[in-house]
């Protein structure tokens, strides 16, 4: 019996983990046992920790690289480990700069093809910034192509963060998506919430009966991706990110900062910073807080994190030395 796989794609900070948490909750409510493969660009696993705090699903993590390029070989191994735990379905959350078609392609490798089947690709868009990406990243053709592929390959497109923009912007985004994908179901969402029954009910029926559900999609035919054996290095043209760099900033355990200091730091770096997330110690808080910088906004959430605090920064053309120096300076 093949395990159904749902791939969550979308640019950095668009709302993939938010969607994953909702999907995990709804899977559990239906009595399904999900497995999760999380891929993060940074060495530190922020999203996995967020999940641990909310759920008890089997989680495999692939850190410090993107499964569609540097971590391609490890993708198969991690999925095989998950399969051993006999989940009813597997969610793969990609990095924000991954091309989902390459993952779909990787799932056709011998060793995976017999044991899992790709069901759906869901792409989450950040309504506040999607229309700007072409101009923001105009000098990075690869990234622009990857963002387009995320829309093209999707079965579902969530136009997320709908609370932050006008309805005319949402209309424009929908038109923009339709230029690249005339088949996907497009839904406007807030906090990635949408009706998951069409996705999960057939999987539930499949898990119960073992019969192939007719609504399941068979592996998409991947016309645009050249098939490269997993042991080969990806060619430069198959890389999904180029000028993106990830830097982990340690937060001295004896120090505390204010929200305002951290928000100012994020805002001063916002030209190059696409995303930042991590656990920080605040002057007025007894416990570490989860800080998320996405779409040029900083979000705060309480957390149960008890390790050494840190912040992972993902940026384009990031001057790592200057970033680290200015970060250190915050604590002097
Ligand atoms: N206002 C608003 N905030 C949202 C919405 N969806 C998600 N967020 C917030 O945006 C931030 C990023 O959301 P995530 O779900 O972590 O985004 P992601 O795509 O997983 O991010 P990466 O893993 O870094 O690529 C979090 O602080 C979310 O709470 C939304 O619809 N509206």
TrEMBL record:
Keyword flag Transmembrane: no
Entries under InterPro entries matching the protein: CobW-likC_sf, CobW-like_C, CobW/HypB/UreG_nucleotide-bd, P-loop_NTPase, Zinc-reg_GTPase_activator
CobW C-terminal domain ranges (all copies): 244-331
PANTHER family: COBW DOMAIN-CONTAINING PROTEIN (PTHR13748:SF62), COBW-RELATED (PTHR13748)
Protein name, per record: GTP-binding protein
Source lineage: Bacteria, Bacillati, Bacillota, Bacilli, Bacillales
Pfam families to which the protein is assigned, alphabetical: cobW (PF02492), CobW_C (PF07683)
Reactions that this protein is recorded to catalyse: GTP + H2O = GDP + phosphate + H(+)
Keyword Nucleotide-binding: yes
Family per record: Belongs to the SIMIBI class G3E GTPase family. ZNG1 subfamily.
Assigned keywords, A-Z: Chaperone, Hydrolase, Nucleotide-binding
CDD domains: CobW-like
